[in-house]
Amino acid sequence: PMIPVALHPPFRSCQVNGRTRGTVTVPTAAAQDDAVAAASANANVAKYLEGKEIKKIIYVPGKILNLIVPK
């Protein structure tokens, strides 16, 4: 059966360089800065960001957050 969109939990897939590194819970209408802050607080995502500068952010509200960092 179909579940109404309003009942889906507000999880976002967090990717670093296109690979899923974790998920965060943020409101569907969350701003990009809030989503990045939540992702940075995730321990698994943070270890891939440590000591690196984020070069590009791809954010699709309600779906995905992809952080591009140098390798």
| SSE pattern | EEHHEE
- Total E-strand runs: 4
What is the topology, as strand order, of the major beta sheet? 2-1-4-3
What structural category characterises the helix and strand content?
alpha+beta
Count of separate DSSP helical elements: 2
Shape: globular
* Radius of gyration from CA coordinates: 13 Å
Fold and architecture overview:
It contains 2 helices and 4 strands; from the N terminus they run E-E-H-H-E-E. It has helices at residues 32-41, 43-49; strands at 11-16, 19-25, 56-60, 64-68. The protein is 24% helix and 32% strand.
List the helices and strands and how they pair.
Blueprint: E1 11-16, E2 19-25, H1 32-41, H2 43-49, E3 56-60, E4 64-68
Parallel strand pairs: 1-4
Antiparallel strand pairs: 1-2, 3-4
Outline:
The protein is α+β, with helices and mostly antiparallel strands. It has helices at 32-41, 43-49, and strands at residues 11-16, 19-25, 56-60, 64-68.
Structural features:
alpha+beta; 4 strands; globular; 71 residues
